[in-house]
Amino acid sequence: MKVARVTLLTLLVVLIAGPWFYWRPKVSRAQTDQGTQPCCDQSKVVAPRDIVFPYYSLRDGFSSTLYLVNASPQALDLTVAIHSLSGQTVLAPAMTIQGLGSLSIDLGSVLTGL
Question: What pTM was estimated for this model as a whole?
Answer without folding.
Answer: 0.55
